[in-house]
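queue> pop job 88
queue> type: inverse folding (structure -> sequence)
queue> payload:
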């Protein structure tokens, strides 16, 4: 490879890492090579590409972030987590209360549409609940908005969950009545959340793209966007990133979810009504097992929330 091409690739890698926040190993060399080849085919010289990358040319940055983002996903990935949400959240949710869910780093949208199908199958009244689905990639969001998928998005899907999806013969087509449930938005998880107070935030398989410090900060930021008593869901391999959160680890259906503790006295949330935090005798709906937050108080007998205690100072 010529020195000019090597220099252009090095400048693109540096630009991609800085502007997307991706870890170096998350930027595939093949993606950079394809991006460079397309620029050369469009008549740019390698030195021009390198210079545009170095000055963070807006057009190049946008195209490059699309080129390196891999929105690889499929329906009901980690199916045990969807079953756990169904059991912990949907089964016990007050039908009169609107649920708000967030799929952060939604890729091509299968995760968010899967949630919409789960809500519909749980008999939730149409039009009440809302799902926010965000991603850094406009291309992924465009695909997601289309709401049409082929067999590849159904690979390995659990038949019991697949039955919830609208469509036939290996195609999934989101029907008009489900579409208003999901709002699609471009958002970078390295920046403040677009909203807060979610009943559940799914933040799965995105941190491998992020530099380690950004990954830890994003997990904390997204956990803070969960309402007290709500859940943060990360992919099993990402669970260690949630270990330092002041969260209760709830086990259900073979999945671990991170529940934000109920507000303590003195918190602004303390005055809000609590939508059935636990089933009879303090057990989670369906008998899920939960552990108190690290270093936090154990749940009181009878399912009452823990005694008030000061919020840990290092939390935010
Ligand atoms: C592998 S997909 C994950 C899709 C889905 N959450 C899942 O678990 O299957 C990773 C997605 O993260 C997105 N992503 C990467 N960095 C991001 C960032 N800083 N902010 C928002 N999304 C990001 C990518 O564009 C990609 O669509």
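queue> result:
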């Amino acid at each position: 490879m010529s020195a000019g091409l090597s220099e252009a690739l090095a400048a693109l890698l540096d630009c991609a890492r800085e502007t997307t926040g991706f870890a170096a190993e998350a930027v595939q060399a093949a993606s950079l090579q394809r991006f460079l080849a397309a620029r050369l085919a469009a008549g740019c010289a390698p030195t021009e590409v390198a210079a545009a990358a170095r000055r963070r040319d807006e057009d190049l940055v946008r195209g490059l972030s699309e080129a390196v983002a891999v929105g690889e996903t499929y329906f009901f990935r980690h199916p045990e987590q969807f079953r756990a949400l169904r059991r912990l959240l949907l089964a016990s949710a007050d039908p009169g209360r609107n649920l708000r869910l967030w799929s952060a780093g939604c890729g091509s949208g299968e995760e968010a549409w899967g949630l919409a199908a789960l809500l519909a199958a749980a008999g939730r009244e149409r039009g009440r609940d809302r799902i926010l689905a965000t991603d850094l990639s406009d291309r992924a969001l465009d695909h997601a908005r289309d709401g049409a998928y082929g067999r590849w998005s159904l690979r390995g899907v659990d038949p019991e969950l697949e039955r919830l999806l609208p469509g036939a013969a290996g195609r999934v087509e989101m029907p008009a009545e489900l579409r208003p449930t999901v709002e699609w938005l471009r958002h970078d998880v390295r920046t403040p959340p677009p909203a807060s107070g979610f009943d559940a935030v799914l933040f799965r398989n995105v941190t491998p793209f992020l530099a380690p410090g950004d990954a830890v900060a994003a997990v904390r930021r997204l956990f803070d966007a969960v309402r007290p008593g709500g859940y943060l869901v990360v992919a099993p391999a990402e669970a260690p990133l949630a270990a330092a959160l002041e969260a209760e680890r709830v086990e259900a259906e073979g999945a671990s979810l991170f529940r934000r503790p109920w507000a303590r006295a003195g918190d602004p949330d303390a005055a809000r009504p609590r939508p059935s935090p636990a089933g009879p005798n303090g057990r989670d709906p369906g008998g899920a097992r939960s552990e108190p937050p690290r270093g936090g108080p154990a749940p009181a007998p009878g399912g009452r929330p823990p005694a008030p205690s000061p919020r840990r100072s290092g939390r935010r």
